[in-house]
Amino acid sequence: MQFLLEEARVDLAKAEKQIRKQHGDNCEKHLIVTYGNFAWVYYHKGEHEKSQTYLDKLEGIKKKFPTKSPSALHPETYGEKGNAFMKFFHQYNEKAKECFEKAVELEPEEIEWNKSYAVALYRTESNLTSFEESPASRQLRRVLELDPNNAHMMVLLGQTHNDYKEYQKAEELMERAMKLDPDKPYVIQHVAKFYRKIGKVEESIALLKRALEITPDSSFLHYQLALSYRGKTANNREETEDLSGLRIQHLEQAISLKPSFVWARVELGCVYAEIRDNRKAEEMFKKAIEAANDSNEYHQIAYLKYANFLLYKERSVPMAVVYYKKGLQLENDTFDWNVCARTLEKIANGKISRNPIDGEAFGILGYVNQMRGDTRQAIECYEMAILYDPGNEEYLTALCDLRLSLQ
Questions:
Q1: Nearest 5°: phi and psi at 208?
Q2: pTM of the complete model
């Protein structure tokens, strides 16, 4: 416990240094959350005098910057809490969005909170039908009203246009952003990603190489470059092998720089599967799942890609079904969730076409409908599964639970 508390203290000291560097003389309100955490850490370390010191600092900030009511929080409190969620916990983007929304409500003209709120909306947005319907697009435009030359917001707005197939407007914004900040890696990587998506692979590769010259230790840039090489057309077998080699090289570098990089491990597993090195592919997919378990995020993509490998490369249908099912146990209504569901249905329907009394196939369909929330259809499928496989406890338990849920 003491070791963890000391690690936390060191991290907080780094955070304080960064905040002072970023905000200069106006840093006090931005230190509210950090000082509160310092007080908590020192209290649990048994260093009560130091804990009290930070509580006194907080009291001083409160007197210097009073809020509208005694119970109200400073916008910086919400903002810094949101920053912590965004920086350290990708699975908490929704919570970060809520924090920044409150900060913007308290300080509507503050560029920093508006910008962070826009990023959080961009990260969490899904399943919308039009650009105008998108809260992220509205907030990104709001930031550009406050800060017209913000290249970061410009490329995110461009990506949003691209998501809704408004390619011309997207490209205009990307080009403007590049003129404003041609040497900023995060701008370059967004523009490169856009070019890759619209088929301008050579331009994407050139930009990413340039970005890597500026920040050679960026795991994300190595990953993006590997994706761009994947999209490059090879004219012969030798070029195909060369491109596979480059993809492996950059993915291995990305993983070396960031061992917890689940997406890079998944992509490397896919490359090995493509070149028919199934042993290395299997090893990498399992490591991707381990990394997802350690970081508690990105399980779904790891399960899906491993299941695809088991189904299409190893021809192991039973094991593939196991991992597609694991994918369905996570957040639903995502692209990956729907791929898992459709593939399981395809497997089950294929089995039924070959054997109309295949209990396992009806069990698979029951499970998919259960996870989808279609209780009545799930019950029908499980009833068929039990009819053809009467002793299966898994189906009996599921059927019992589903019937109880309707009462």
A1: -65, -35
A2: 0.80
63-91: per-residue pLDDT in tens? 666 655 444 456 766 776 777 677 655 66
For residue 6, what pLDDT is reported?
76
Q: Burial of 70 by CB count in 10 Å (0-12 exposed, 13-18 middle, 19+ buried)?
A: exposed
Query: For 231-356, where are the alpha helices, taking DSSP H only?
Result: 237-257, 262-274, 278-295, 299-308, 317-328, 335-354
Please provide the DSSP assignment of 84-152 as one string: HHHHH-GGGHHHHHHHHHHHHHH-TT-HHHHHHHHHHHHHH--S-S-STT-HHHHHHHHHHHH-TT-HH
CB 185 within 8 Å of CB 172: no
Please, are residues 262 and 291 in contact by the beta-carbon 8 Å criterion?
A: yes
- Token readout for 297 is 């995020």
d(CA 378, CA 109): 51
Residue 22 pLDDT grade (very low, low, confident, very high; cuts 50, 70, 90)? confident
* C-alpha dihedral sign at 104, 108, 109, 115: positive
